[in-house]
Structures are given as structure tokens and as C-alpha cells.
């Protein structure tokens, strides 16, 4: 019964997925600095999915892109656990439709976004959106830090749904950690490259000021940068970004 | 543009179907690339091939290329950018040193591929100038691609990079050797490394018959 549920979901999906939301450009002061000299960055406007990508949305992607189904994906693009919580190539357990999809690698997240005409957000874009979200939701720095550390101390992406029709940014800090396109920039440990063996740009990674909120953000960067691009885990999901000029198609 | 890429991706999907049909290796853990120096051809896992990336690149010879077209010969591959005056000429020189340490028969088989980080400035024309300036023969290919595809390839090779505010790139210095199937056989990290052992490896790889 569960086996064909996913396929039925594709055919009869009642969901009208929400449009991505606009993240208005402006000045961004990164909590973790890559450049000693550059304390603020001018961000362009872009669109971002309101919530993490759900199992249902991901199912529709793999249904029309068999290459990225669990039994077909090349070993180069995952660590062996890709979508391991699903029942098979095109089905997951009943009731999981609106949960963030997890056990997806950086490669597969990028393929999903490209198929939607989008891309993964850059690290700065994601963090800039997170900042705007905190302002929109009136989340104080301390509440943000508390919320993030609470999630990290007991991450539970399972049994936690998102509203697929959300019309504003949601669940930036309480569902899954999310892939970003350039996640490997910081505090790297995910592959064989010895960063002190002559690679450029290894220095100048530090918090702009030591606050609870910045420390929480730093922790997010660090936990994510330990992953290989093939990593798939129960707590890593993603959402897609879209350039403004491409979005009206 | 996105549409075009999607169509391309779809087309390649169709053409690569027979290859995918053989790929049931997803249950095995992703291996450490550095272990692939063993020469037993039977153990080569094709699904670890970087030729799984089906992006389309522009060459400095004004043609387009998929990396999978390089299959059948060992490949020496590195990532650079043309306006780089520090590490990049050394990387090209390192690849050239490796090439020059090979015997003539092996040299004829090997391809050298330099992929640019700089999609905007390193146009095929600019890359052609670069190849000419360094007096490189036809075994060399300089590739220009989209930002997304550059990021994918760099990630697969284990090259980290980012564009600085001044437009230049910070990047890892890495020369990689691919076997005839496009599987990473060796990674030479850092500049001006000794090339004797890598040259032996390339020679062995060149002798392996393609399955």
C-alpha cells in the first residue's frame, strides 16, 4: 500500500506549491569573515524557497529524472545512504509528504534545484536570508542562539512537517541544516585537501564579534563544512535559490 | 540558457542509459580516492568516474566537449585561471613537467586538461592565447564552462576555490591523474612536487587496456 503511495502522489497531488519568496538585496555583515578587509557585503536580491524541499517535491523530481533515483545514482554523487529512508526509488512512507527531504547529497540537491530552473543558494545568500527571517519573525539574538543550539543538541527532522504553501520564509533554523553551494569554503575537513599545504585563502576566518548569535551561526558553518559533497544524513536538507531574471519563465 | 542546459542534460541522460544500467554499486561506501593507485583494472569502479558529470565545456580550440569524450586515455587535469600570475603558471608548468617525464609513446596517449575557474574572463579565445603563450601542443585542452559546472568539477576533484572581491580566485593547487575511465588515480597536492612517481603511474595507466 505504501509502495504505490508516492506514485499516486505524483499523479493526484493536490498541493499547489508556493512560489519562492523574494529576499531583498542590501548590505550584509557576515557573522564569519572570509576577508579581513571586508566587513560588509552588498547582496543582490534573489528568490529563495520559503521552506526546505519536501519529500513530495523531491519525489516528483526523481520520478521525472530516473538518473537520480536511489538505484540509479552513480556512486560518485553520494555516500551509499542516498534516500535510504525511502521505501524504494519512487515511494516513501505514508504521512511523510511534507517533511523536509533528507539523505540527499550536495550533488543531488544541486541537480534538484537546476531542474527547477534554480540553484543552491550561496552561503552568504542563505545567511543573509536567515538574518532577514530573524528580523521578520522578531527573533532576538539570544532566542536564535538558543533555538539553534536546542536543534543541534537534538536534531529531529523526522516527523516534522513544513507548510508547502508557505508565503514567507519558514523553518530556517528548526528543521534541517541546509546545503549551500559553496559550503566547503570554511573550516574545511570534508576531503583530502590539506588546507595548509599551500592553498590560498586559508586565513581570515573569524567571527566579526563574539556574540551568542554569531557563535550559533559559526557552529552551523562548522558542522556543515565537515561533510563531503557525497554525504547524506538524516539532518541535511536544502532549499533552492533563483536569480530574479530567470524566475518569471 | 537554463532551458538549454536542461535539454542538454536530458539528452545526455538518454545517451548514458546503458552505462547507468550497469551501475548497481550505490550500496558500497564512497571510497577514498587515494586508494585507487592499485593497478588492477578489474577493481576500477566506473561509477566513480568523473565522466559521470555530463556538462558541456568550451575548448580553447573553439569546440565543445564533454569530459566523457576523454575516456580511453589517461588524463592529467588541473584547475587554473588565465589572469592568475602566481600559482597558475606553476600548475601548468607542473603538468608540463609531468608530461615531459613520460616516454614518447606514453606522451602520445596522454591528454592534459586545464579547466578555468573564471567563466567570464577565460573565454575560449583568451584560453587559446594562454595555450599559445605557453607554447603547448595539441595534447593540451583548456576548458571554459558555466559557474555551476566549474563548481561541480572542482568539488569532485577536491579543489576548493572562491572568487575574491577583486575578481581573482583563491584556490587549492592540485594536479590530478585520471585513468582511462575517468577515475581519479592520483592527486598531486601543492606546487612543484616531484613527478617521478606520478610519471610511472601515468605510464602504467597508458598501458592498461580499456574494457
Automatic annotation (TrEMBL), chain A:
<dbReference type="GO" id="GO:0120147">
    <property type="term" value="F:formylglycine-generating oxidase activity"/>
</dbReference>
<dbReference type="InterPro" id="IPR051043">
    <property type="entry name" value="Sulfatase_Mod_Factor_Kinase"/>
</dbReference>
<dbReference type="InterPro" id="IPR016187">
    <property type="entry name" value="CTDL_fold"/>
</dbReference>
<protein>
    <submittedName>
        <fullName>Formylglycine-generating enzyme family protein</fullName>
    </submittedName>
</protein>
<dbReference type="Pfam" id="PF03781">
    <property type="entry name" value="FGE-sulfatase"/>
</dbReference>
<feature type="domain" description="Sulfatase-modifying factor enzyme-like">
    <location>
        <begin position="20"/>
        <end position="241"/>
    </location>
</feature>
<dbReference type="InterPro" id="IPR005532">
    <property type="entry name" value="SUMF_dom"/>
</dbReference>
<dbReference type="InterPro" id="IPR042095">
    <property type="entry name" value="SUMF_sf"/>
</dbReference>
TrEMBL record, chain B:
<feature type="disulfide bond" description="Redox-active">
    <location>
        <begin position="84"/>
        <end position="88"/>
    </location>
</feature>
<feature type="binding site">
    <location>
        <position position="171"/>
    </location>
    <ligand>
        <name>Cu cation</name>
    </ligand>
</feature>
<feature type="signal peptide">
    <location>
        <begin position="1"/>
        <end position="21"/>
    </location>
</feature>
<keyword id="KW-1015">Disulfide bond</keyword>
<protein>
    <submittedName>
        <fullName>SCO family protein</fullName>
    </submittedName>
</protein>
<keyword id="KW-0479">Metal-binding</keyword>
<keyword id="KW-0732">Signal</keyword>
<dbReference type="InterPro" id="IPR003782">
    <property type="entry name" value="SCO1/SenC"/>
</dbReference>
<comment type="similarity">
    <text>Belongs to the SCO1/2 family.</text>
</comment>
<keyword id="KW-0186">Copper</keyword>
<dbReference type="Pfam" id="PF02630">
    <property type="entry name" value="SCO1-SenC"/>
</dbReference>
<feature type="binding site">
    <location>
        <position position="84"/>
    </location>
    <ligand>
        <name>Cu cation</name>
    </ligand>
</feature>
<feature type="binding site">
    <location>
        <position position="88"/>
    </location>
    <ligand>
        <name>Cu cation</name>
    </ligand>
</feature>
<dbReference type="GO" id="GO:0046872">
    <property type="term" value="F:metal ion binding"/>
</dbReference>
<dbReference type="InterPro" id="IPR036249">
    <property type="entry name" value="Thioredoxin-like_sf"/>
</dbReference>
Amino acid at each position: 500500500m505504501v509502495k504505490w503511495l508516492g506514485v499516486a502522489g505524483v499523479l493526484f497531488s493536490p498541493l499547489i506549491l508556493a512560489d519562492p519568496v523574494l529576499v531583498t538585496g542590501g548590505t550584509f555583515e557576515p557573522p564569519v569573515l572570509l576577508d579581513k578587509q571586508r566587513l560588509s557585503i552588498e547582496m543582490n536580491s534573489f528568490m529563495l524557497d520559503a521552506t526546505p524541499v519536501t519529500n513530495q517535491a523531491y519525489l516528483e523530481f526523481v520520478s521525472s529524472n530516473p538518473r537520480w533515483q536511489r538505484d540509479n545514482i552513480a556512486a560518485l554523487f553520494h555516500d551509499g545512504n542516498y534516500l535510504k529512508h525511502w521505501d524504494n526509488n519512487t515511494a516513501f512512507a505514508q504521512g511523510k509528504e511534507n517533511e523536509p527531504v533528507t539523505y540527499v547529497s550536495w550533488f543531488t540537491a544541486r541537480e534538484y534545484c537546476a531542474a527547477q530552473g534554480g540553484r543552491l543558494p550561496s552561503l552568504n545568500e542563505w545567511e543573509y536570508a536567515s538574518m532577514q527571517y530573524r528580523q521578520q519573525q522578531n527573533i532576538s539574538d539570544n532566542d536564535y542562539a538558543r533555538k539553534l543550539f536546542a536543534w543541534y543538541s537534538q536534531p529531529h527532522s523526522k516527523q516534522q512537517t513544513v507548510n508547502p504553501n508557505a508565503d514567507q520564509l519558514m523553518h530556517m533554523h528548526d528543521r534541517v541544516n541546509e546545503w549551500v553551494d559553496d559550503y566547503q569554503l570554511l573550516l574545511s575537513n570534508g576531503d583530502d585537501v590539506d588546507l595548509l599545504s599551500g592553498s590560498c585563502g586559508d586565513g581570515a576566518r573569524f567571527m566579526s564579534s563574539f556574540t551568542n548569535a554569531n557563535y550559533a551561526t559559526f557552529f552551523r558553518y562548522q558542522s556543515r563544512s565537515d561533510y563531503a559533497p557525497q554525504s547524506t544524513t538524516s539532518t541535511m536538507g536544502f532549499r533552492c535559490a533563483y536569480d530574479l531574471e530567470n524566475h518569471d519563465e | 540558457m537554463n532551458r538549454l542546459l536542461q535539454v542538454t542534460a536530458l539528452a545526455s541522460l538518454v545517451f548514458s542509459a546503458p552505462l547507468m544500467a550497469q551501475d548497481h554499486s550505490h550500496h558500497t561506501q564512497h571510497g577514498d580516492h587515494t586508494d585507487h593507485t592499485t593497478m588492477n583494472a578489474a577493481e576500477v569502479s566506473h561509477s566513480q568516474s568523473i565522466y559521470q558529470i555530463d556538462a558541456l565545456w568550451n575548448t580553447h580550440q573553439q569546440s565543445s566537449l564533454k569530459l566523457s569524450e576523454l575516456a580511453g586515455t589517461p588524463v592529467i587535469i588541473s584547475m587554473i585561471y588565465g589572469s592568475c600570475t602566481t600559482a597558475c603558471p606553476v600548475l601548468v608548468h607542473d603538468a608540463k613537467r609531468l608530461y615531459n617525464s613520460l616516454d614518447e609513446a606514453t606522451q602520445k596517449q596522454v591528454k592534459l586538461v586545464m579547466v578555468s575557474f573564471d567563466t567570464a574572463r577565460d573565454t575560449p579565445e583568451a584560453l587559446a592565447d594562454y595555450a599559445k603563450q605557453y607554447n603547448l601542443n595539441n595534447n593540451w585542452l583548456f576548458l571554459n564552462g558555466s559557474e555551476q559546472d566549474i563548481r561541480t568539477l572542482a568539488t569532485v576533484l577536491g579543489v576548493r576555490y572562491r572568487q575574491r572581491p577583486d575578481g581573482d580566485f583563491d584556490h587549492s593547487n592540485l594536479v590530478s591523474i585520471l585513468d582511462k575511465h575517468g577515475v581519479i588515480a592520483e592527486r598531486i597536492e601543492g606546487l612543484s612536487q616531484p613527478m617521478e612517481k606520478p610519471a610511472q603511474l601515468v605510464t602504467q595507466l597508458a598501458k592498461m587496456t580499456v574494457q
